Amino acid sequence: MIDTQIAVIHGGNMDEDIIDHAAQLIRDGKLVAFPTETVYGLGANALDAKAVGGIFEAKGRPADNPLIVHIGSKGQFDRLTDGVKDIAQRLMDAFWPGPLTLVVRKSPLVPDIITAGLDTVALRMPRHDIALALINRAGVPIAAPSANISGSPSPTTARHVAKDLSGRVHLILDGGPCKVGVESTVLDITGERPVILRPGGITVEMLESVVGRVKVDPGVIRPVQGRPVRSPGMKYRHYSPRARMAVVEGGLKDIVDKITDLTRGYISQGKKVGILATQQTYGQYRDFDNVISLGDREHPDTIAESLYSALRRMDEEGVDIILAEGVAREGVGLAIMNRMDRAAAFNIIRV
Ligand code: TXA
Ligand code: MG
């Protein structure tokens, strides 16, 4: 067991000492959890294969699921990739720092353990002062998956990280809640046309405005079965609460009616039900306990921001079944539904 320290970053002049300490831990091959604009990451020196091994061990992550390398400068990008394409430059100019991860050909500098033996590497520059300060002070790129136990919802607060990883990480930097709330968009730009392997904060529409048509990998929408996966992360049960979960999709009134019926049915069987509603529908479930409004349907980014913490709260309440309202699969809604589908193990009810 490691004695896990938690350091709160206030935005004052004590912070520099904390970042220095965190950067030293990274250089010493230790694990540091830190906030990004998407979710908290579990970081280690990306150039140190042994330190990176510690990430897989702490999370219980399968060794065939590669990690994202976080960088703080264009120079690091050039050193970690093998030949920069024009399209990479345009995407970086438009979206970095920000929630876009680019899958590119790797340079020999990248240890195989990071890429799970693939000849590509996933790189991203986070839009977060603490993350960037840590990377730049450490002076090395930082490999970091989401700082949760493999399979559970990603952490959007330092408390979530501590709950999953206390005793397994040396330091947690607490920078408050994450703004985007779902993980970065993963875009493979090694082929003819860019392919979205995981939808996120940078939407299809935003990408297409810069690089023209992008493809969405079929694994984003459907479960992956019996065919090779381009993003190994897609094949695992993911983002899952302990409770069973179903997502109800369709017209808004039909969704509310269906969830109301199902809830009554489960309650009569003695089950504890949790409902993930939205601002537009919250008031219509007033007969029931354990109802959380995820946010405003008119502003789906508010739904993305609160999704994971709501899933965790449902588990803390000890509900048996979570019934979630679906949202339109467009814009950031594509990322929200991708996470809900997986949290529910594709238990989707269409009404
Ligand atoms: O927002 C984020 O991306 C967060 C924060 C911490 O930056 N990180 C994150 O990392 O979500 P992780 O490890 O939980 O997800 C990485 C995803 C996985 O689905 C993985 O399969 C995919 O990126 N990936 C990594 N390297 C890849 C590669 N070379 N080719 C294809 N997919 C790759
Ligand atoms: Mg993850």
Bound molecules: threonylcarbamoyladenylate, magnesium ion
Query: Would you give the CATH topology of the largest domain?
Result: DHBP synthase
Query: How helix-rich are the residues, as a percent range?
Result: 25-40%
The H/E string reads: EHEEHEHHEHEHEHEEEHEEHEEHEHE
Return Rg in Å.
20 Å
Shape: globular
Please give the order of strands in the largest beta sheet.
1-8-2-3-7-4-6-5-9-10-11
Protein traits:
Rossmann fold; alpha/beta; 351 residues; binds threonylcarbamoyladenylate; 11 helices; binds magnesium ion; 11-stranded mixed beta sheet; 18% strand; 2 domains; globular; 5-stranded parallel beta sheet; single chain; DHBP synthase
Explain how this protein is built.
The chain is of the alpha/beta class. It has two domains: 5-220, DHBP synthase; 244-350, 3-Layer(aba) Sandwich (Rossmann fold), CATH 3.40.50.11030. Helices cover 33% and strands 18% of the residues. It is built from eleven helices and 16 strands. It has helices spanning 15-27, 49-59, 74-80, 86-95, 112-115, 129-138, 158-165, 204-211, 252-268, 300-317, 333-343, and strands at 5-8, 32-34, 41-45, 68-70, 100-105, 120-124, 142-143, 171-174, 185-188, 195-198, 215-216, 244-249, 273-277, 291-293, 321-325, 348-350. The strands form two sheets. The chain has an eleven-stranded mixed β-sheet, with helices on both faces. It has a five-stranded parallel β-sheet with strand order 14-13-15-12-16, sandwiched between helices. α8 links the parallel β10 and β11 (215-216). 49% of the residues are buried. The model has no long low-confidence stretch (mean pLDDT 94). The structure holds threonylcarbamoyladenylate and magnesium ion.
